[in-house]
Amino acid sequence: MTNKKMNVESFNLDHTKVVAPYIRLVGVYSGENGDKIYKYDIRFCQPNKEHLEMPSLHSLEHLIAELIRNHLDNVLDFGPMGCQTGFYLSVINNDSYETVVEALTKTLEDVLVATEVPACNEIQCGWAASHSLKGAKQEAIKFLDKKSEWKMYLVNNKFIFKSIIKKSKIRKFFYPRFLFYLAAKLRIAFLSNSISTLGAILTLTVSVPTSIISPYIPANVTILSPSFKESCNNFNSLFRFDCGLITIKYIKPNNATIIIILIY
Fold first, then answer.
1. Which of 7, 93, 203, 232 is most buried, by the most CB atoms less than 10 A from its CB?
2. Known binding site: residues?
3. Positions at the binding site for Fe cation
4. pLDDT tens for residues 179-209?
């Protein structure tokens, strides 16, 4: 395996680290006129351990591609992975991860009551003989049964939290030891549902030693002030960086509560 960064995003993903099933935002791509395309990795099977049989995969592709458009606006494309472990979904100008999850849930529920595979004929399909409605329903049931795990690829893989922090450029402001601490905090917060995820935006409220943030606080702000509101009337962002911002919520002599917003 090479460490060279490749052009294809999935080739840079360590498939031995992820835990399926999951729904992962692959990336956001901007058009010349301001449009944004959001691409999702919808992984049904654990890479290199299992895969979808081709007739089931093929029928799921037809069913989901047709039915998801009843629940989600601006769908550009839905297609299978060559490795037969999942699918890619691309939508335009819709940044809501939760909306995608809800739409996919409703779509798979539609699959369970479908009486036929759409466009399953030689005129509309290039391999009409390779379909299985029964197989598609079985895979839909398996994926729906593990809905609670769709976001768990984040929780089960600490390296992802570290990569989020690394990508956010927050490392410019804090020493390495604190970054590991923050990565652990992210994971714990995700497990306890005290973290908010909106597509590619992650928000965390965390307590840190005041000494860590004091170098970035304006001179006119008093560290010993009992509250952020009293001492920071017109001061909102502690500092901004490439992929997010940090805001003071509360300041005390020994510790401060800050809100970290990462765009990953």
1. 232
2. 58, 62, 125
3. 58, 62, 125
4. 556 666 665 665 555 555 544 455 666 666 6
